[in-house]
Amino acid sequence: MTTLPRSSPLGLTVLALLQYKPLHPYGIQRLIKQWGKDQVVNVGQRASLYRTIERLLAAGLIAVRETGRDQQYPERTVYEITDAGRETARTWLLEMLEQPKQEFPQFPAALSHLLLLTPREITDALQRRAGLLEGELKDLESALSGEAAEGLPRITMLESEYLRAVTAAELDWVRAVSDDLRTGRLAWSTSELMALAGEQEPAADG
């Protein structure tokens, strides 16, 4: 029995797009960008898309529809989804909707090691992050406005709504922490924290 590949945002997206029509890898990548799905799946490296397609093919979730060639492009393999792929896509989608996943993004990891920096360095870095978040928020709001102007139903814009809400919440939090650092409401003694860490070290095996 074939073992199903692990679910992934890119794998789910490939299966979802192939339910509309058979596509070759370039067509999949183009649709992901054209439909704004590159906000939620990483297709910056085409190699990752090809690896995902290979895994889906090996698992029987997609199949080769045809292989063609024309004067402008090299040989292209067109893929179509299988019945197993349709069922797996539904299973993955429901799992991703229902079950929060413990992920390990960079920002919380950086926050856990702030004692390596001075308060001024932290404040400056957070202010720079806030500036970038402001830009991202404007881009998301512009994209949502454009999609609404095109008459797209709200169900097609929920990922953009979610990203806007999460980005806005992060921006508010970063601004608040930066303000607490500037005013001194957030302060600490490095020596006291180092001493506390020393007290909490596990005893050496004797």
Question: Can you put this structure into words, describing what you see?
Answer:
This protein has 206 residues and is mostly helical. It folds into 2 domains: 9-98, Winged helix-like DNA-binding domain superfamily/Winged helix DNA-binding domain (Arc Repressor Mutant, subunit A); 106-199. Helix content is 59%, strand content 6%. It has 8 helices and 2 strands, in the order H-H-H-E-E-H-H-H-H-H. It has helices at residues 9-18, 25-34, 46-58, 83-98, 106-111, 119-149, 158-183, 190-199; strands at 62-68, 76-81. Strands 1-2 form a two-stranded antiparallel ribbon. A hairpin with a 7-residue loop joins strand 1 and strand 2 (76-81). Helix 6 (119-149) packs antiparallel against helix 7 (158-183).
What is the secondary structure topology, with strand pairs?
Elements: H1 9-18, H2 25-34, H3 46-58, E1 62-68, E2 76-81, H4 83-98, H5 106-111, H6 119-149, H7 158-183, H8 190-199
Antiparallel strand pairs: 1-2
Helix pairs in contact: 6-7
Q: Can you give keywords for this protein?
A:
2 strands, 206 residues, mainly alpha, elongated, two-stranded antiparallel sheet, Arc Repressor Mutant, subunit A
